[in-house]
User: Fold this.
Amino acid sequence: MTDHMPDDLSAAGRDLRAYTDELRPKHPVVRNTKGEWVLLRHADVLAAAVDNERFSSQVSRYLQVPNGLDGEEHTRYRKVIEQYLSRAAIEPFIPVFKRVASQLATELPKGEVLDAVSDIGAVFAVRAQCAWLGWPAELEPRLLAWMGENHAATRSGDHNWMADVAEQFDEIIRSVVQPRRAAGDNAPDDLTTKLCRETVDGHPLTESELVSILRNWTGGDLGSIALCVGVLIAHIAKHPELVGQLCEASDAEVEAVINEILRIDNPFVSNRRVTTCPVHIGGRDIPSGAKVKLNWTSANRDENVFGNNQFDPQANAAANIVYGAGKHVCPGRLLATWELRIALQTLLASVQTIELVPERPPEREVAPVGGYHSVPVVLT
Assistant:
């Protein structure tokens, strides 16, 4: 750490991965223009993620179930949610995800320029999530339009626009939840209906709690899955030797490769915390009540842990925190991993090559979004 620690930094308009690579070797902790303390090194991010006493997750003015909750309250709600995200619960949907991926792979035109993020990742994410939740296919255009506007609003930093986009999505969720609750026993037999009937401490989940859970499952995951698909396809297009290896690999080996690609280029940028007491971390004294960002993208590229960031799925797996760590680790990590594996395996089985477009190179996203804004490719 140098004597002159930069404060009031702004990542606006920058590629976050490149910017944090530049900052991290000398500055493990920086402050941004919002007054947030941003942790950039693996050891500090991990320490904060597992320290639920000093780093509270109750950071938003909006209800966030379960990961915006602390202590026993978090545990109670997490128990309800995890039963839908366990291996046993997700396994019956594997044929569904394969069918969605196969249909999409068949529809994708060959020999034409496609965007791996919007034409492949976003469409697969919407169809897979709707199939999993039991949402009508008619919602696809509305959800795809919302995803595009959500990324644009987030990129802009316009809080009024972001709030309006968030309300739009809550309205989509209510349009699915309210008819099911009104229908009672006549509601469709799907995952969303089952969730509508859940209780915590003997009390039914409120509409606000249901909207929060489904917002987390869909609003967060749709954009993340689309960005992940863009990152995966961009990496494979740049490293075509991986195609043959992946086509012959086991499911576990493919998942290890996916996790390593996402470690190197993690579109799950950060999570927030707030300190409950004064904290000394990364050489900085952070006061009580301070907003803190755990920058996963930066932590997963820390040269102190991953050396020169060579691609090595086996060696780097243990330290990979692409889905977070501690009690608030992403509850949907298994669902996301399986969806991404199925999407990638199906795509690779349906094409001979995936090529980048020389005159239209991939365009990086800018803060606060990670990954790529667009990845033009041609499938043959």
Q: What stands out?
A: The longest strand covers residues 270-275. The chain has a mean pLDDT of 94. The radius of gyration is 21 Å.
